[in-house]
Amino acid sequence: MASDEAIVKSILLSAPPGQFDIILEDLRSLLPKSSASSTLDPSFVAAVRSEWEASTGRYILASSESAGASSGNGCTDALSKAMDEYLALKFSSAGVRAAHGVTASAADTIIIATYAERVDLHNHHAGSWKGSYTFCPSSGSLSGSVSIRAHIWENGGNVQLHSDITLDAINVGTCPSADSEKQASWAKGVVRQIEAWEDKDVMEQLTTMFDSVGNTYLKSLRRVMPITRTKMNWNVLAHRVRQTLGEGHDKDKFKH
To answer: Is the overall model pTM greater than 0.70, yes or no?
Structure first.
């Protein structure tokens, strides 16, 4: 049987966007007082929070605020500037917090990470978007993935969506060296590919999923047939005709 610590960790790691602390407080009230203080000690909570932020991508919000200026790498700096413009264009709706990070890794790759969230607890919904793109300077190959989390709840309903979408590698060309104008033009081309992926591939997959969700994911959560074993006829005209006939019948009844 799993320990209290393992169960608590699992629950916290599945916390929807913006609700880690809310769920943490709920767990404090649910656990026996004798074990709450030991199970939810500060070091344990800090470690789980760090793991949650890393898995959801939320760490990018904090890291972007403390990021410095130029990295000294022309290609990385050009990508960072192009991503600044992209996020300002695509993730600037009211209530949305968004950030990105562009870093050169030890494995001779450049990692582009994006994160956006909109948390509206008052209106019972929250969601986040995590994008991760890997560029190989030697080959010009760009690959990526997008992870989407959404949570909606109201009047007893409580539904979460987790969707992970992989984007196949494509060649975007190598980054020009020692030419800032060409690097800026190349970086904009990379961001255009990211935009095309997110606007087309990601949205198409989400649309396909939404169109089929009623006959797949939600089918097991609802009755196939009502208790009466008769399907509801949603023809509005038919109901109006029936209502009109019923009203006419009642009037005739009162005449007699």
So the answer is: yes
